[in-house]
What does this fold into?
Amino acid sequence: MSDVRWKVSLLFAIITLSIFFSIYWNSDGILESIGNQTHTQAGEANASNSSILSKAQIPDLIYKLETGNNDTKLDVASKLGRLGKPAANALAEEIETNNSSSEGVNSYMLLALLETRDGRSEQILSENLGKKVALKNTTAGSTVEGQTGREMSEDTLQALKAKDKDMRKRLADSIDREYGNKTDALENALKSEEQNSSIYTPFAFSEFGPQESGSETEKLLKALKSGNGAIRIAAMMALGESKEKAAIDPLNDIILRDYPLAKNSAIIALGEIGDERAVEILLKQMQSDSESTRSNVAIALGKIGTEKALPHLLARLRDASAGVRSNSALALARIGNETAVDPLIGVLESGKGLQGKAQDSTNANVDVRKSAILALGELGDTRATEDLIGILTDKDEKNVVRTAAASALGEIGDPKAVETLKKVIDDKSVDNRIKKKALLALNKTKSQEVAGILIGKLGDKEFGAIAREALINMGETAVDPLIGNLKTADKKIKNETALILIEIGNPRAIKPLILAYQ
It folds into this structure.
């Protein structure tokens, strides 16, 4: 009996051990199976949660298209593209309702829509590029129709704006010395970046009671007769900013009879009004002993734009004051008569240092040289090309002068300057500010070779933004090189290229854009 029990116990032990080892040997597979099932379920849950979170982020991502810098917007466009249909729906609605704050933002939305590969992309892109072309044509037409003078380069306009600001600041400083803290409001108005009649009228009306009769113009004309000089100055500035022609005769009288501060204010105001009836009075003031008066007159004559002033302004290129010479050069730029080309070239040549000494030390002044260069750019005559190339490549010239030379060469657009501009861009010893201006100058030549150079700079941290701006401004000429660049393997450059094509708005780019993002 005991022998049977022993055998049964042994058999039970063997069976138990067999089961144990079987479980042990297969445990990895069982655990892996359980783990895989758990992981799959968790992955599905996470994917679902991720999808929900991504969809919830679409409005925030679209908002970032309006607020971020270029790199951020390109990144956001790619993120929206990866979200597919939900993002495409939101983008299509946003584009259709035109909720974006600018055309530039709308372009990033169209790029994001391309990235979604949505079937509606081609139609929406076609409609929007059509609108861009129509808008550009309308804008171009209205610019020509509403233009009272020649269109000037941004650099020259900025130089003229700086002259205006300097004139007003000098006037404010003189008023402060004359009247002390009683005229703080007027001084602040003169130094303000934004100029309009409303910033001067409160001071001009400060002597009037609330029952004073008349329109605003009538009251300003009445204020010109105030016994308080500061009140008269405020009224003059207000009338100038509102371009009130009824003020011309009273302002002429002030120039003839009033004290220097009022006289200079009247000159500035007449320049703002821009009526030729003021020219004869202003020309007489060109003989003034006061440097500030002659400087103010030069700018005022330039704003009026009359060719009657040409001989007088040309004569002032030899004025004893560097400021008067500089202002006269910019005034000649505004008038735009080619008679000024040779005298302006003469300013540059006589101011160039030879063996450490200039023939005319006043023409060596940086401000004089910059103004003469910008004026030659505005006149657009190729007679100045060689001199400007020489200045651009002369490392003894100040950077601000060389930068102006690059800008002027762009305005002239002489093909002889292209090789020089290209060399400047590739010269590692040249200041980046000069290189940037040279890039923009190249853009003015509007050739496909230049478009290729600019496309090659899109990935450059220093010059990418300038290259993008230049390609957009180049327009039609850049379209084919940009379409070719859509084949690039660099995703960021591809998106930059697509964005520029969208900004240009040429319908020929639609099919290549759709194919590039399929």
Observations:
- Strands lie at 353-354, 357-358.
- The chain has four domains: 2-146, 155-305, 307-422, 446-518.
- The longest helix spans residues 2-67.
- The mean pLDDT is 86.
